[in-house]
Amino acid sequence: MGYKIFCTGKAALVLLGEVPVIGPQIGGREKAVRVAQKLFKEIDKFIAGSSAGPYQINFKQRGGGRYDLVIKSSKYSLEVLHDLDELWIKRFRKIFHGIFILSCFYEKNDNLECLAVTDGLGAVLYSSEARQFFQTR
């Protein structure tokens, strides 16, 4: 891919220009595409539905320095990334400016590829709440 991708557990992070791309690490391109499409349909429930109201993006602390990335609205809750460690959170904090792309990553020839780059599959999300989360830490 040509970009340095930071991985922890099954989550990955890469910087494209000034925009971070985050997402789960999935085994194989086809499976990653299916997971991404399912994830984007779920995200549409938060954003496209006028009755869903505003959404929030939060990092839910699980204990032991581990976090989950959760998208919430008044009607829905979707855990997007699981078991993030504090180093991953700190790296994301450094490059986060209120906007990021949610995508999926997959292995190809012993390298990690990002669907946002290879296939244009990614959801652009903005959250002032996540920015506030980082400013209070």
Please describe what this structure looks like.
The longest helix has 19 residues, at 29-47. Strands 1, 2, 3, 7, 8, 9 and 10 form a seven-stranded mixed beta sheet that branches. Strands 4-5-6 form a three-stranded antiparallel beta sheet. It has one domain. With 137 residues, the protein is an alpha+beta fold. The chain has helices at residues 29-47, 86-95, 115-118, 128-135, and strands spanning 6-8, 11-16, 19-26, 56-63, 66-72, 77-85, 99-102, 105-108, 111-114, 123-126. It is globular and about 40 Å long. The model has no long low-confidence stretch (mean pLDDT 83). It is built from four helices and ten strands; from the N terminus they run E-E-E-H-E-E-E-H-E-E-E-H-E-H. The termini are far apart.
Write the layout of secondary structure elements.
Elements: E1 6-8, E2 11-16, E3 19-26, H1 29-47, E4 56-63, E5 66-72, E6 77-85, H2 86-95, E7 99-102, E8 105-108, E9 111-114, H3 115-118, E10 123-126, H4 128-135
Parallel strand pairs: 3-7, 3-8
Antiparallel strand pairs: 1-2, 2-3, 4-5, 5-6, 7-10, 8-9
Shape: globular
Total of domains:
1
Helical/strand content category: alpha+beta
* Number of distinct beta strands: 10
SSE string, helices as H and strands as E: EEEHEEEHEEEHEH
Main β sheet profile: 7 strands, mixed
Indicate the radius of gyration in whole angstroms: 14 Å
What proportion of the residues form beta strands (DSSP E)? 35-45%
Quick structural overview:
This protein is α+β, with helices and mostly antiparallel strands and 137 residues long.
